[in-house]
Amino acid sequence: PSPSLSKEAQEALNGLLQREIEDKSLKPQKDRITVFQTLATFYIKYVQIFCNLETVYDQIVHPQKRLVIRQVLEGVMGRILELKNEMVELENSEFHYFDDILQDLKLSPEHIEIPIPRYFIKEKLKVLREREKILAQILINSGLQDIKPVSIPWVPVIQISERARQGRLRATFMKQIYLEEKRERQARLQGVKGPNLDAAALRIQKVWRGFTQWKKTVKMREEEMIFLGMNPPPQFQRISASVARAQNVETKRCEVQGRHETEYEKALVSIKTHLREVEGPDIKESLQDQIRQWFIECRHITGKFPDYPNEEEGGSTAIFSQKTPDQEEEEGWKMAPSNFLPIMEEGNNQYKDVWQNRDERWNFPQEYDPELIKEEKRKEVEEEIRVQVDELMRQELKNLKLAVDREKEKKWKKGKKGGKKVSAARDGKPSLSHGRTGFAESIQNLYSVVVFHYLNYALYNNTVSHLLSPCFLPAGEYSYLGTTLRQVDIEPMPSLTDVRQLIALYGILPLGSQAVHEKAPLVKALLLAGPTGVGKKMLVHALCTETGANLFNLSASNIAGKYPGKSGLQMMLHMVFKVAKQLQPSVIWIGDAEKTFYKKVPKSEKEMEPKRLKKNLPKILKSLKAEDRVLVVGTTQRPFDADLRPFCRVYKKILLIPRPDYASRFVLWKHIILQNGGAVTKSLSISCLAKVSDGFTQGHIVYAVQTVLSERRLRQMTNKPLTAAEFLSSLARQDPVYKEEEETYKVKLTST
């Protein structure tokens, strides 16, 4: 990576950590606006550090440096979530706007875009491929992939198409003959003389010169627009040699990272074994000498040999780890309210102490440093040997007491030790390996049952190659007037970029990192509310795509008729959540979430029993712990039909997915047309489409584009460029979302 990028991130992190330690007046402040600006400034700066560190971690190949940077990176992610949680509690809103702060810091909205760490997927490729194979095998064994496709009688279709083509050609030929005969007949009746050759030549020259001049004018205008930056250059759409070279370098870098990581893991084992064999006897002898010296000093001071600390007290470690009152007071004073500040400080100090001034001219390939491994593994070997030495020295101390002090071991001590042995045997530790094997087999069987009953989705066709594609989150634009509207007491409608940020913060970052999920503010359930077509279900699949998570479907329509009765429901929920915890990260999707909390079940849906999960869902959410990377995501089009009190107890995080505004529609039209094989030319007015599609959702735009861009239309595009008028008819056939309906969502959800 660029040295300036790494240095910039480290300097910014040092400054922020120092400011957080020194700034003790953040919470006592009474002015809410000042507090929010302080939190928002910290948030923006941490997001910038996050972006830089994520790039550094992705590009660096040294395995030991990557471990330290990974620790700091996860600490920064967790701190961002903590600051976001404080801003939510301060303003009682999930959406925040930083227009004025960004302007003061001279930053653009792109600088606070939450990046999705690339290692979430890259480091899980092996697991994802294995899961893909297991899922495919389960589907084959269950007979779910044996469905034969419906055969289409292609021969009659081809014959009909060919006859139609020939008929069109024959009709065109006959029309030309008819027109020629008509012209000859009219000429004979009018008595027109033959054409004048000079006049014909003059007309041809006139037309040709006009055409050539028109071509020159168009070319000059195009060059001027490119010069002014209004149009992209002709080679803009082509992949440049620099981009291709960068992609090649990235592929090779990933290979080098994997190779160095494998070598580093092997070196951890081999160097530890070597240290145990070479330095182990010396360490053992040194520990024994230190403990014997302690025996002698204690007997000299107290007149008798001391009692040896037991394993619960730390054994001989407790002898040499006594701290002074000053040290304990200093350690307590360093404790910060944040769970991630100590992690960032430790990683940052470790990087500065070990790597900042280290001479690495000898390590040009950036392979592992064996000396650092020795320092790390020497402590582990010493700890393992210490346990063995403790057993020997306990026996030696016992013999010394018998020989010198004539002191016999009391009977209650033997009984206590015997009790410990009995309790250890009851714990079942010897049969642990056998239990794990059986447990793994039971999980695979449960997974097969879950897939067979369609409770697990095949990740929206998310194969490993699809998971490596660019960001799957929806396109959109930032809301530039949020702060201005709030200053005049108008709550702005969130933009698609705001929604994308919250999905990344509440879903992707915690699910992608175990360290972040365990210590960050815990979000167990998330509700996505909005009208039809705004992309709620796509956001659920985006969560799984970006984190490689399993997707389980517990929608009322999907579990209807499965596992009937109270005991059957408990069995199904136990099975699904057990598999979800073991194969984490996992997303539990509940579509039409309002049906689970209906005030009154409609007659047409009584057979489906939509309220089956109403009593069990809160209990299951309560049982989820910080180490369980399981997120329950509900989607709803009509949250007003639910009993809001129990509904909001389950879904404490409610996100409104709005219809896109003008800026987002402009981005969406361009993005979706290009995604479906279209081309944006000067004859296609994107701004016109964005204007006339006011009130239509992302789903409406996708439907309109896919309807127009058929295979035949794509083939004609080189000779007949796309125009805005082509998309209007397919848009007009759909019902828009009116402003009154959207305001209803905002008022109802804000009141809850």
Automatic annotation (TrEMBL):
Family matches, as PROSITE patterns: IQ
Keyword Cytoplasm applies: no
Domain AAA+ ATPase positions: 522-661
A Pfam family this chain is assigned to: AAA
Gene Ontology MF, one: ATP hydrolysis activity
Keywords: ATP-binding, Nucleotide-binding
Iron among keywords: no
Positions of the UniProt region annotated as Disordered: 408-434
Superkingdom of source: Eukaryota
Record's compositionally biased regions (Basic residues): 411-420
UniProt xrefs under Gene3D superfamilies: 1.10.8.60, P-loop containing nucleotide triphosphate hydrolases
Full protein name: AAA+ ATPase domain-containing protein
Organism whose genome encodes this protein: Terrapene triunguis (Three-toed box turtle)
